[in-house]
Amino acid sequence: MVLLILITFLAGVVTVFSPCVLPVLPILLSTSTGGGRGRPLSIVLGFVAVFTVVTLIFTAAAEALALPHQWLRVIAIVALGVFGLVLLVPALGRAFERLMSPLARMAGKNSNGNSLGGGLLLGAGLGFVWAPCVGPIMASVIVLTATQGISAESVALTLAYGLGAGVPMLAIAYGARGIVARAKKLGPRSILIQRAFGGLAVLACAALLFGWDARLQTFALRNLPPEWNTALISIEQSAAVDKELAAIENKSTLPAETMPTLQPTSKPVTGLENSGPAPEPTIAPTPEPTVPPTPKPLIALEDRGVAPELVGLTEWINSDPLTLQQLRGKVVIIDFWTFGCYNCRNTRPYVRALYDKYHEQGLEILGIHAPEFAYEKVPDNVRAAAKEQGVIWPVALDPDFKTWRAYSNRYWPAFYFIDANGHMRYSHFGEGNYEKNELVVQQLLSEAKASAK
Question: How many Cα neighbours within 13 Å face the side chain of 282?
Fold first, then answer.
């Protein structure tokens, strides 16, 4: 467990260098420039505390707290946006200072002029709005907390992840203060830097409020070299991590027979931190798609046995309830996703292309929506997101992660390929691999066609 905590801490450190930090970075920079020398530290402490509490409490009680969490997140974004406006418009800043002066006197200040409470509140706001790019460790924590409640392990790992993220945040915050301090020597021109920080904070809050942050993250991801993201996730991909996570997951109350171990055919890539930007979609729908008839296999695929049946699904979108038994004779892709995951969103054009190209030949895609955050558990939110992202294939809601656990899954997104006999034949995690995925579909459809003769 000590090793897992250490690796989780390091995973938190490196996630700050991933695209998911971009929406909150301007807010961190602007909030750190005011107050006393202790402001950055109090912001980071507030961030770590609230991130830990929100991740655990709102995951453990997601169904009851989904909507309140959304409203609290909106309130936090608006409050941070107001802080940015205060920096952007000096007159507004003076008026705000007069308005808040009674509270400042009540909170009190230390001898250095620091308001600890103000920094903690700003950090708390960041903790509410930050949605980190989680890898398999935090994904396991989220699932276990949602299904079994809060445990000592989940608290320790979430706190370690938050503290890890807080270390580079602290360095960034003090770096911003240093820039502002040096700029003050320029006299009146220092106001321009303060306004720039405030303007960036306002824009960042607007992006978070209206969902533009996902587009920003996607743009950044597609323009980063593949080696960048590979380096970020490599720390979580080791046999030691898998062993530690398996030991924690073995405490599950689910029957052992519903949780077979499925071995990936290639090194796993995390759902939200992946191997890098993929090329533009090359799978184009065609009027009359054909599967190449050939006695020679297009790609060698192992038989991993009968695929686990779908269990614990509460609601279906775009379809009546389905089972794998009903789909015997068809090639099936099980697609684990959640609508807030920008990596899942990036795979949508490729999945849609496969569906359009091969559905008439016997391919079925089942989107298993397993929520990462509380607001993703609300059925109406899932319906709206499925429509917005162009998801036209059947989608089933797995709010209690029962099908997720039946497949021993740890990733968003994850794809499991099932042949016409209901046997698991291949799996892939994360973005990319699109050409090989299509070859797998062609091979399984070719096998199904041959066996039907």
Answer: 10
In this structure, are residues 312 and 254 in contact, taking their beta carbons and an 8 Å threshold? no
Return all residues near 273 (Cβ < 8 A) that are at least 6 apart. 15, 18, 133, 134, 135, 229, 232, 233, 343
**CA–CA dist 22, 199 (Å, integer):** 15
- A 10 A CB-CB count for 37 gives 11
Q: What are phi and psi of 396, to 5 degrees?
A: -120, 140
d(CA 369, CA 310): 12
Question: Tokens for 420?
Answer: 């016409």
pTM, to two decimals = 0.65
How far are the Cα atoms of 72, 167, 176, 235 from residue 170, in angstroms, in the given order? 24, 5, 10, 22
- Say if residues 448 and 425 touch (Cβ distance below 8 Å): no
Measure the CA angle with vertex 72, ends 69 and 77; round to 5°: 125
DSSP 324-351: TTTTTTSEEEEEEE-TT-HHHHHHHHHH
For residue 343, is pLDDT > 60? Answer: yes
Output DSSP code: residue 187: G
Are the C-beta atoms of 357 and 383 separated by less than 8 Å? Answer: no
More confident residue, 65 or 382: 382
81, amino acid identity:
G
Query: Rg of the chain's alpha carbons, rounded to an integer?
Result: 24
Residue type, 269: V
CA–CA distance, 233 with 329 (Å, rounded to integer): 38
Q: pLDDT tens-digit profile of 182-217?
A: 766 655 566 676 677 777 777 877 877 776 766 666
